[in-house]
Specification:
Layout: E1 2-6, H1 10-20, E2 27-31, H2 35-43, E3 48-50, E4 63-66, H3 70-82, E5 86-89, H4 98-110, E6 115-116, H5 125-131, E7 136-145, H6 154-158, E8 170-176, H7 177-183, H8 189-197, E9 205-210, E10 217-225, E11 228-236, E12 238-239, E13 242-246, H9 247-262
Parallel strand pairs: 1-2, 1-4, 2-3, 4-5, 5-6, 7-9
Antiparallel strand pairs: 7-10, 8-9, 10-11, 12-13
Helix pairs in contact: 1-9, 3-4, 7-8
């Protein structure tokens, strides 16, 4: 399999290093707006080369992995799907727009391209996926992060909330998932995953808490319906080079790539 990784940051670089050790992966194409970062990553790998854009090697590629940003995902996903190439989307918040998402999925179906969305930094979504096959009454996600994980969020700055000055647990957002993924594009992609698997962006409630004493990125997922009730609480260790990203999110991407390469689907 030949793969293209878009974005050589925390998740993209960890994923590239893991892919470099997979015998199923024959070639890795790296794309990043900062070519120097991609070059440095490729220099330490056996199978990687740097290309200028996704389109450069798309005809030779079996899978594109977006590990960059919501805006990048929105741009590249339709192009990849139109070529009939599979894509893994890490910036799941890019799918919040209903018309865009419907058009992308239709495009993928017409060109026989698969869209993969890993579980990310959240446990319990397997049960949510199953429970959604019958009536679901409510889905709630409560996310708690430290100030470093919520730095420079424009939504908070506009509200005059300076996270470094918060001295105790403080709710900085409470509302529908649709707004959460727009206001926190680098912090709450798991809310988009939960919404897509459950009752949608408007009915899924999201609460974001800033805790100055937090040592992990915490996600508490609660859902209730005909199946019964479920609660899954995940305490994630942040990536050392990017506290906005949980280590489990990178591991989820690696696990997903292995499943795709080996065509092994345990726990589906």
């Amino acid at each position: 399999m030949r793969i293209t990784i878009v974005g050589c940051g925390s998740i993209g670089s960890r994923l590239a290093k893991a892919a470099d050790e997979m015998e199923e992966v024959k070639r890795i194409y790296l794309v990043d707006i900062r070519k120097d970062i991609a070059d440095n990553l490729a220099a330490g790998l056996k199978k990687a080369i740097v290309v200028d854009s996704v389109e450069d090697e798309l005809y030779h590629c079996d899978l594109v992995i977006e590990a960059s940003s919501q805006s990048a995902a929105r741009q590249i996903a339709p192009v990849v799907a139109a070529r009939g190439v599979d894509i893994m989307i890490m910036s799941v918040g890019s799918l919040v727009d209903d018309e865009y998402r419907a058009a992308l999925f239709q495009n993928a179906r017409e060109h026989e391209a698969k869209i993969f969305i890993p579980t990310g930094a959240l446990c319990g979504v397997d049960g949510l996926r199953s429970a959604s096959q019958d009536d679901l009454d409510s889905v709630e996600l409560i996310t708690t992060k430290g100030p470093k994980s919520l730095e420079n969020v424009q939504y908070l700055l506009d509200k005059g909330i300076v996270v470094d000055k918060i001295k105790e647990k403080t709710v900085v957002y409470s509302g529908p998932a649709r707004d959460a993924v727009k206001y926190f594009p680098k912090n709450i992609n798991v809310a988009a995953t939960v919404s897509l698997l459950g009752i949608g962006f408007d009915r899924t409630k999201v609460t974001i808490v800033c805790d100055p004493e937090a040592t992990s990125n915490s996600h508490e997922l609660k859902y209730e319906g005909k199946f019964g009730k479920a609660v899954a609480h995940t305490y994630n260790i942040p990536e050392t080079d990017n506290p906005k990203t949980s280590h489990l999110a990178a591991l989820a991407a690696i696990a997903a790539l292995k499943r795709i390469c080996r065509n092994e689907w345990f726990g589906i």
